[in-house]
C-alpha cells in the first residue's frame, strides 16, 4: 500500500485574522484533496488554524512538535510527533512534506522554506510578501511558486506532484 | 478531538523468523486495540514486520525514518516522517510513543529503550533476553515490564495507560 | 574560566574565487580577534576557506559536520563535531555562534540565518546581495547587519558583543 | 593539520563523591594525554567533574549541551556547542568521541553507550556495575572494555586508537 501524501503547512505564530482564515482554508483544501496535513503542531497561528481546517474536512493531521510533551499542542492534532529538538524540527517538516506551503512569513517560516528548497522540494508561498517572493525566487527559481488562495495552492500542488 | 494514542515498537534488523512473527503479532495487536503504531520505518526486521502486522488489522502506521527520502522505507508505512537525523531519530521514537515496546535487542534498540526510560516512559520487553531485562530493571525498575506474547504486552500497555 | 567566544561563519559551497578569498579573510580576522571559528566543517566553499583563514592566524576551528564521519571534512578543522543530523545541524551552528556571519547566500545559508534570527542572534551579511539584505531586514531589522569587508565585519561583531 | 583527537566522557548527574573524584581523574588523564574532552556540558555530576579535571591539566573542554543557551553549563567548558535538541544530543556525543568513556551508569549514559556501539565505536566502562558490563558485552563484545581507574582507561584508549 502506497504511503499517504503529506503536505506541510508552515507559517508564523500570527494573530492576524486574515492569515488565520487563510490557514484554515488551506488546511481544509489539503484534507479535501485527500492529503495528510503536517504542521509544527503548536496551538498558535498558522499551525493551529491549518490543523483545524483539515480536521473540519475529516482530514488527518500530524504535528511535529518542538518539545518533549503535548503541553503546547494544538487541539486539532491527530498524530503528535514529539521531536524534542526545538527549531531543528523545522528540517523534519521540510523533509517530510512532499510540498511545503507557507502562509505568511517569519524567521521560523523562512528557515522551513530554506530547508525545503535545499532538500529539492517545491514550495508554495501565500501572502508572504514581495520581499520573500523575490528572495526565495533568487535562490532556486524553479522550486518557488506563489498563490493567493487555497484553491490556487491546490492547483500548484497537483501540478508539482504530477510531474515528479 | 483528542490525539490518537501512539505505541512505539522497536527492535533489531533481525532475520530471525520467530522474532519477525512476534513483531507481526505485536503490530497486529496494537492496531486491533485502536492504537497508532510508530516504528523506525525501515524495510528491515522488527520495524517492517510490526508495520505489516498493524496494516493487516487495518491500523495506521507511522515511520520515523533516519534518512532524507523513502528509499529504505517499509512497504507498510502509511505516514513517513523523514527525520534526516540518523540514529538521533531514536529519541523522536522514544518521546512520541506513549509506551515503547521492544521485540528483541541490539545496540539501536538499547538506545531507544534507554532514551524512553530517561524520558519517564514505560517500556515492555519481549524476548530481549535476561541480560537486557536485568540491566534495564537496574536503571528504573518501575518503568520496565516484561512480556512473552503480544497478548501479554497488550495487558501491560492498557494497565500503564490507565494509570497515567 | 569563561568559555571562549564562538563566531559562526556560513555560506554556500561556492567556487567563486572572490567569495573564497573573502571567507579566508573573514576566518583570519575572527581568529586574530581571539574568537573561535565555527563552520559547517565541510571541505567546500565558504566553510573550507574560512577555516583555512582562521588556522593561518593560529586560531581554533570547530566544524559541526552533517555526517557521521570525517570523510567530507575540511583539512582545516581542529575540532570535528559529527552531528549525523544532516541539515538539522544548521540549528546547532545558529545556536552556538554568538554572532552568525554569512559570506554569500544559498538555501542552506538562508536556513542558518533564519534560525539564527529566530534564536535572537545578530547576523552579519557579507556579499549576500540586495534581495537577501532586504528580506532578512524585513524579518527582524535590529538583528541584521551588512558589511563589505572582514574589517567592517569585525567592527560589527565587537559592537554587538559589547552591548549584550 | 590533523584534527585533534576527541574523547567523550559520559555519566549520570550523580552526587556520589567517589564517582565525581573518578570523573575528575578521568578528565585530567585525558587532558594530560593530549586529547580534547567532550561531555554533555552541564554543571552536574560526571560531565562537570570530568571537565574540571581536564581544565586542571590545561586541557581543552567541549560541551555538547542539550539546551539553547549556557544557563545550565559547567563552569569548566571552553567550547559550548548549544545543540538545542535535548537527549538527541547524546548521538552527537557518541559520534564525535573517538572513544566513549562512561563513569557510572544511568538511562542517559546507557543511551550514549548504545549509540556509540551502534556507530561502531569502542567504549570504556568505569564503575558501571556488573549488570551493565554483562549487557553491553552481550551486544557487541569486541567494542566493550572495562577499567577500574583513569590509568587503566588511558591504556585502553591508546590501544584502541593505535589499531584503528
TrEMBL record, chains A, B, C, D:
Top-level taxon of origin: Eukaryota
Record-linked InterPro entries: CHP00725 (IPR005268), LDcluster4 (IPR041164), LOG_family_nucleotidases (IPR052341)
Signal peptide feature range: none
GO cellular component, as recorded: cytosol
PANTHER family: CYTOKININ RIBOSIDE 5'-MONOPHOSPHATE PHOSPHORIBOHYDROLASE, LYSINE DECARBOXYLASE-LIKE PROTEIN
Protein name: TIGR00725 family protein
Annotated source species: Chlamydomonas eustigma
